[in-house]
Design a protein that fits this description.
Blueprint lengths: L4 E4 L5 H12 L3 E6 L5 H10 L5 E4 L5 H15 L2 E6 L14 H29 L2 E6 L2 H5 L5 H21 L4 E8 L5 H4 L3 H9 L9 H12 L10 E4 L7
Parallel strand pairs: 1-2, 1-4, 2-3, 4-5, 5-6, 6-7
């Protein structure tokens, strides 16, 4: 049986890297996107040194045309994508009364418009194959909101609205669509926060620690598997008990 192809957007960050590795270990051929030319080379070299052969393509996920081009390159190199992880995202935090249109548009474009731009390129192939997994990486703050993150929280909540609607459209084609909403994960970005601030965050997490990127990756690998075929339209919270709904 031919290897299935998985595409992870924003796969070179902390969570994205763990997801790429996890899917490769689960037997997928893995592709990822990068936005800035040159910066991907060191990451790919590190992945190869660890035994992971990952295909990378430059793509501006906020541009529909760029996504068309990138998806074409991936399909030509690896075959049709049957698992998509919409993981690309940015933050531009600030109180709403001081937030400018640029900060709003940048976050909405990268975090939400990208979900349409990329998914639209692969959904037809998934339906034709009779197997597909769209996995949207949202956030705890898309579920509960967060001070200073009206743009980010709105975009992340919108991701799950997309999930619920598309899940109903493609279910009979063997395609599932699900959301994962991580809490605070021990990525380089979070670990760079001042220790006293980080300790305050941890104090608010019932399990008493930050999550690990590999835990998110393991959940992604399960949802991508054949065993998760009855799971669709769901939003799986993985936040150490910090928020329940």
């Amino acid at each position: 049986m031919a290897q299935k192809v998985a595409l992870v957007t924003g796969g070179m960050g902390g969570i994205g890297t763990a997801i790429c590795k996890g899917l490769a270990q689960a037997g997928f051929k893995v592709a990822t996107t990068y936005s800035t030319p040159g910066k991907h080379e060191g990451w790919l070299e590190k992945m190869r040194a660890e035994g992971f052969d990952i295909f990378a393509v430059q793509c501006d996920v906020t541009s529909f045309d760029s996504c068309v081009e990138a998806a074409g390159k991936i399909k030509q190199a690896l075959g049709a994508v049957s698992v998509l992880v919409n993981n690309a995202g940015i933050t531009k935090d600030g109180r709403f009364q001081k937030m400018d249109k640029t900060a709003w548009d940048a976050v909405m474009s990268t975090n939400l418009d990208s979900v349409f731009n990329v998914t639209r390129q692969v959904i037809d192939d998934m339906c034709e194959l009779g197997f597909g997994r769209v996995i949207n990486i949202s956030s705890i703050n898309g579920q509960k909101g967060q001070f200073g993150q009206t743009n980010y929280s709105a975009a992340k909540a919108g991701m799950h609205g997309f999930t619920m609607a598309l899940a109903q459209e493609v279910a009979k084609k063997g395609v599932t669509v699900n959301t994962i909403s991580p809490g605070y994960i021990a990525t380089e970005m979070v670990m760079a926060v001042k220790e006293e601030v980080r300790n305050q965050i941890i104090a608010g997490i019932p399990v008493g620690r930050l999550g690990h990127p590999e835990e998110i990756a393991a959940l992604v690998a399960f949802i991508a598997s054949d065993a998760a075929g009855f799971m669709t339209g769901a939003n799986v919270a993985m936040n150490g008990g910090q928020h329940t709904c």
